[in-house]
Specification:
Blueprint: H1 3-12, H2 19-43, E1 46-52, H3 71-78, E2 81-87, H4 93-102, H5 131-136, E3 141-147, E4 165-169, E5 192-193, E6 196-197, H6 205-219, E7 225-230, H7 242-247, H8 255-278, E8 285-291, H9 320-323, E9 327-330, E10 339-346, H10 350-357, H11 373-377, E11 387-392, E12 395-400, E13 403-407, E14 425-429, H12 445-458, E15 482-484, E16 517-520, E17 524-545, E18 556-562, E19 569-574, E20 584-604, E21 621-629
Parallel strand pairs: 1-7, 1-8, 2-10, 3-4, 3-7
Antiparallel strand pairs: 2-9, 4-5, 5-6, 8-9, 11-12, 12-13, 13-14, 15-17, 16-21, 17-20, 17-21, 18-19, 18-20
Helix pairs in contact: 6-8
Length: 630
């Protein structure tokens, strides 16, 4: 009985209801209401999201990998629902995680590329409303364990983004025993608990994570809890336990070490599932399992090891092998067991879906994620997605029904398989060609035109009034191969090749646009041959200024031109760096007024962040756009 009803009851029975009795009953009812609210709060399901790192599209026993031992993740599928068309909104670590935690596209979540792994760099804006904040606002205890990679400042680390508790590494990858950043020097330790650095020298990070997750569950078992367990496996370095090394000793590399690492992570997931069962919590705990994107084909991953079956591509690619991932949900108390769903779903869907399952009111607020709970409870329900848009740097993709158009496609598993000119737009019908082998763009210009319009409507171009789908801009140096004496940094996954700086594609002003070439603390020196003597009036080069991401225009640009390759004329320009500037493109125009066939370019970078910058003394970045010659 609520208080208003109690007042009405008293008015109808005033002759036998004294003030003292009324007060006693009011206190009793308020206590009962409080207990009832607490009981309802506890009745809400617990939630654990297990987000693995660089795991291939089909790299689980339940997805058909007969050479892998993954009994524990298979157990989640056996106790729940497995999706055959589970996608992520990005094929790169940080933007995928931003989409998961906000329900937004990476661009709308403010993470259009990988976030810096260096302390002091911001990442996903603290203004974003995260899944953790949604859960915490209705009384959930919220915890993060594992990889973060969404910001390395107080405001953008986990405790600033809705997590009551956090344990893990802030950068993209670590050695699992020393817990040092695993990429390049200087060597940096990266292990944190609630914003404070902690040291567990020599202890296996996989086991540390299990202890942390189980302790969090133990401490919060009397109220609903939300755990985001971002496992940093099987991302390189491949460091499986000895048990699994022996198990796969006869398997050839690189599959051998990758497989052993997958089974290592599976075993650790099993220890958490066992603890939930022992504590009597498994029945009312929603467990979601998903990989952040496809497997890696990078050198640090021995150029592969993962398996995408018939699906083309891998990590960083917008072909299916980069964005279609193992996706499972289990809630023994409410959901079916051992079922499969073929409807399309995306990692952005988990936030609104959990809001529905946990009875949380969640405003739209610009999210592309959809509530897929109808699909969970009814296998005949339609997918809420009739189309979806991806964008990662220069690459973009639109799927509408079975039609899929990829712009500026990339396939890290077979880079030479794409023609840079003919395959700039790659159209497939997934119902007929799941492997995305045959480009139908020239045969179906009607479909291409329709999906290009969707890209304009939903992509980065939507915020640029005059933007068009980027067709090549023709100029005197268009498609001329550039010989670079200083290759771009491998840390930035931009477009590479001899034609990148002359391919006619002008970059947008954000670091996630892979039309840039990125140089860390180094200059750019390059030469090219126009093939014949031509009249040249001016050279234009664009540079990104994004001080928040430690990206600065260069100090100077020098151009030399020659008709015979022996005698050169020199032109140049020195630039000033403003201490305050919005993110923008700085275009440098250099008058030439002469004739030339051969050209040499030297661009001197800042190398180190300026004294006035928060990163003073640390390596600075220089992002170079198209070299236009008129």
């Amino acid at each position: 009985m609520c208080f208003s009803k109690l007042l009405s009851f008293r008015e109808r029975n005033s002759s036998r209801f004294s003030g003292k009795n009324f007060l006693q009953m009011a206190v009793l009812l308020s206590l009962l209401n409080f207990k009832d609210a607490e009981a309802q709060k506890k009745e809400k399901p617990n939630v654990i999201i297990i987000y693995t790192d660089d795991q291939g599209t089909l790299d689980l026993g339940c997805y058909g990998a007969k050479d892998l031992a993954t009994p524990n993740i298979d157990r989640i599928a056996r106790d729940g629902i497995r999706f055959t068309q589970g996608y992520v909104a990005a094929s790169l670590c940080a933007p995928s995680r931003a989409s998961l935690l906000t329900g937004k596209t990476p661009l709308d979540a403010g993470v259009d590329g990988n976030v810096s792994s260096m302390e002091g760099h911001a990442g996903m804006p603290a203004s974003e409303y995260t899944m953790a904040e949604m859960m915490r606002d209705v009384g959930y205890a919220t915890g993060h364990v594992g990889k973060w990679h969404l910001g390395y400042t107080k405001e953008t680390m986990p405790n600033g983004q809705g997590f009551d508790y956090s344990f893990g590494h802030m950068g993209g990858c670590i050695d699992n025993y020393s817990h040092f950043f695993y990429w390049s020097g200087p060597n940096r330790h990266d292990l944190w608990r609630n914003g404070k650095e902690v040291f567990y020298d020599g202890q296996f990070f996989g086991d540390l994570m299990v202890d942390e997750v189980n302790n969090f569950v133990k401490q919060n078992r009397k109220k609903p809890f939300f755990m985001y367990w971002a496992i940093n496996m099987p991302h390189y370095p491949y460091q499986p336990t000895e048990k699994w090394r022996k198990h796969y000793k006869d398997m050839p590399m690189p599959r051998r070490d990758y497989a052993a690492f997958v089974s290592t992570l599976d075993e650790r997931i099993g220890k958490v599932l066992d603890y939930l069962e022992k504590a009597g919590l498994r029945e009312n705990t929603i467990v979601i399992f998903q990989s952040d994107h496809g497997h890696s084909a990078e050198v640090r991953a021995f150029n592969g090891g993962g398996w995408s079956g018939p699906y083309r591509g891998a990590k960083t690619s917008l072909f299916e092998g980069g964005i279609r991932v193992p996706t499972i949900i289990s809630w023994p108390a409410k959901l079916a067991k051992g079922e499969t769903r073929d409807q399309m779903t995306v990692n952005t869907d988990w936030m609104p879906t959990l809001a529905s399952l946990c009875d949380i009111d969640l405003p739209e607020a610009g999210r592309v994620g959809k509530d897929i709970s109808p699909v969970l409870f009814d296998k005949t329900a339609q997918s809420p997605h009739d189309r979806f848009h991806w964008e990662l740097g220069a690459q973009w993709a639109v799927r509408e029904g079975d039609w899929k158009l990829v712009g500026n496609p990339k396939d890290p598993t077979a880079p030479e398989s794409l023609d840079e000119e003919k395959d700039r737009l790659f159209l497939v019908n997934l119902a007929d060609d799941i492997s995305e082998k045959k480009n139908l763009a020239s045969a179906r210009p009607d479909i291409v035109g329709r999906l290009k319009k969707v890209h304009l409507e939903l992509g980065v171009a939507k915020d640029m009034p005059d933007a068009k789908v980027r067709e090549p801009k023709k100029h005197l140096a268009y498609s001329v191969p550039v010989e670079s004496a200083t290759p771009p940094s491998r840390k930035y996954a931009g477009m590479s090749g001899k034609w990148t700086l002359t391919d006619g594609i002008l970059a947008f002003p954000n670091t996630g646009d892979k039309a840039w070439q990125g140089y860390e603390a180094s200059d750019l020196e390059a030469t090219f041959d126009l093939g014949e003597i031509k009249k040249v009036d001016e050279m234009r080069i664009g540079f990104l200024a994004d001080y928040e991401q430690w990206v600065f225009p260069p100090k100077s640009v020098q151009v030399e031109i020659s008709e015979d390759g022996k005698s050169y004329k020199t032109f140049g320009k020195t630039l000033k760096t403003d201490t305050e500037a919005p993110r923008s493109i700085k275009r440098v125009n250099i008058p030439l007024k002469g004739k030339a066939r051969y050209m040499r370019i030297r661009i001197e970078s800042q190398k180190l962040c300026p004294k006035w910058h928060k990163g003073s003394g640390n390596p600075a970045w220089m992002f170079v756009d198209e070299i236009e010659l008129e």
